[in-house]
Amino acid sequence: DQQVKQNSPSLSVQEGRISILNCDYTNSMFDYFLWYKKYPAEGPTFLISISSIKDKNEDGRFTVFLNKSAKHLSLHIVPSQPGDSAVYFCAGRIQGAQKLVFGQGTRLTINP
Amino acid sequence: SQTIHQWPATLVQPVGSPLSLECTVEGTSNPNLYWYRQAAGRGLQLLFYSVGIGQISSEVPQNLSASRPQDRQFILSSKKLLLSDSGFYLCAWSNGGKFGNEQFFGPGTRLTVL
User: Fold this and answer.
1) Are B47 and B35 in contact (CB under 8 A)?
2) What contacts A51, CB < 8 A, 6 or more positions away?
3) What are the residues facing B67 on neighbouring strands?
4) How does pLDDT run across B31-62, given as a tens digit for each residue?
């Protein structure tokens, strides 16, 4: 049972434009959502998170939006830069648990 | 500052051979520790996690086991490797965190079973 789903395996965006990465979830018990970025042959690095009681969190070029009624979150990167090319994972934390549930990842490619 | 180490970085092993991957964390105490596997083209699958010495929770039935002999040491093992054990193994730590239990990952070990 895939509790966190990233339905787009890949996304290609022009440099300078906005990148929008999407994530859907099924478990209403998630109290935090996190986004990670991963380069090949490296461990993922934490980017940004959002509490389930909020609908937006912004950090520099990165903004995460949460729509609880639709069980959907998205990560916006603007403007997109070549260094943003990586695989992005969204993850949910089940309230009271010590572990995260990850989606399958979306490979973002920024074209010059 | 905290750092997390994994070794070896790459490993090629024959089917049926044993496995031992090691992960150590520096600069923090009593962390939660995690082992993940990323199979080719797949997401991150949680294999084991530990909230303290000797405490191991297994997420999926499999050919692998984990142990935590010291506070900041986490070991992933197998007695006999299968072809399906190939993948990229990641260790991570967390200390509750202020951003929703964010986890910090090591550099990973690429395991190829032939």
Assistant:
1) yes
2) A31, A32, A57, B100
3) B75
4) 999 999 987 767 899 999 999 998 999 987 77
Give the type of residue at B43: G
If phi > 0 it is left, if psi is from -120 to 50 it is alpha, else beta; for residue B60 that is beta
- Give A31 to chain B, closest Cα distance, Å: 8
Amino acid, res. A102: F
Contacts of A91 in chain B (CB under 8 A): 44
Out of B43, B107, B110, closest to residue A103 by CB: B43
Q: Are A110 and A15 in contact (CB under 8 A)?
A: yes
DSSP structure class, residue B84: G
Residue from the list A33, A43, A99 with its beta carbon closest to the beta carbon of B105: A43
**Residues in A touching B105 (Cβ below 8 Å):** 36, 43-45
Q: Return the DSSP state at A55.
A: S
DSSP A99: -
- Whole-angstrom distance, CA of residue B33 vs CA of residue B23: 9
Which tens digit of pLDDT belongs to each residue from A29-41?
Answer: 899 999 999 998 8
CA A14 to chain centre: 19
Q: Which residue of B has its CA nearest to A106?
A: B43
In single-letter form, the type of residue at position A14 comes to Q
